[in-house]
Amino acid sequence: MIRRRSTPWIHRFSRLLIAGIASCGALVTGYLTIVKLTGGAAACTASTAGTPGGCNAVLSSRWADIFGQPLALFGCLAYFGMLVFALAPLLIKGGENKQQRQKLENLTWMFLLIGSISMTVFSSYLMFVLFTEIKTVCPYCIASALFSLTMLVLTIVGRIWEDIGQIFFTAIIVGMVTLIGTLGVYAVNAPDATGATPINFTPTENPQPGVGWEITTTSGEAEIALARHLKEIGAKEYIAWWCPHCHDQKLLFGKEAYKEVPYTDCAPADNPNNVKPECKAAGIKSYPTWKIKGKTYEGAQNLKKLAEVSGYEGPDNFKYYLNR
């Protein structure tokens, strides 16, 4: 009597596990998409006084948008696609549809492999950017990267692949295409494509109490016009004189334009750890924070972003951009 070999549990439940992880990823990226589109601030325990807050620094960085849309939106769509690929064969009953289901299983496993490889490579690039360029901690971003990697592992071990070489060949091709495409997209969207000068302030001396560091950049017509526009529409920036990221924002505007910027320094000169009552009332959690047309933007913002969210229609040949 020949005993049938039992199916390993990982093969029986791999699709459900992938679907569950994809659902978690869709929820996380969906939440970040809503935050980005509404101009709100993400709930993030990595936010600390004096920094733009880990997750919110990422959402306000130049890597947070692709083709004019939030990166999180594309992530949400990718996770939803993985969810569909994982569950599709399970919705077909056996019997007469057994052959059709087997074809769909083979096809969707290949889609799951391609999708998980692509998402893992892209997430790895974003992790590199997170820790080397933005230099902050974003729990949502790290979680998404772990989701992608876990789906890849489950895809590889979740079934019997007759040709192991197929996995390596697919990984090399998809990985290279994803990496080259990612670098190409961000190269095209790089803010220095217009010839602007990068700004990334690194303090070499202590700030002057109540004042901060000297603004060493000069303003152009566009910077001054934007600053006046922000004042006219009632926008408000909240800063702390000891905050390096706030000085980044000052350098983006330049010495002349920043005199026109409507801002409130939340840190008393004699007690830098304290917060002024008007900033507490405004719910300021990190510096700098912008309040524009009823929406909140945490972190130093490139002037093109401020122009966009404020409805500015003047000259936009800004001299500087934030290099992070």
Give an overview of the whole structure.
The chain has about 325 residues and is α/β, with parallel strands linked by helices. About 55% of the residues lie in helices and about 10% in strands. A hairpin with a 2-residue loop joins strand 6 (about 290) and strand 7. The longest helix has about 35 residues, at about 100-135. The protein is elongated and about 75 Å long. Mean pLDDT is about 85; it is low at about 45-50.
State which percent range the strand residues make up: 5-15%
In DSSP terms, counting alpha (H) and pi (I) runs of 4 or more, how many helices?
11
Order of helices and strands: HHEEHHHHEHEHHEHEEHE
Distance between the termini: 67 Å
Strand order of the largest sheet: 5-4-6-7
- Based on secondary structure, the structural category is alpha/beta
Q: Which overall shape is indicated by the principal axes computed on the Cα atoms?
A: elongated
Please tell me the CATH architecture of the largest domain by its name.
Answer: Up-down Bundle
Stated plainly, the CATH topology of the largest domain is called de novo design (two linked rop proteins)
Helix content: 40-55%
| Overall number of strands | 8
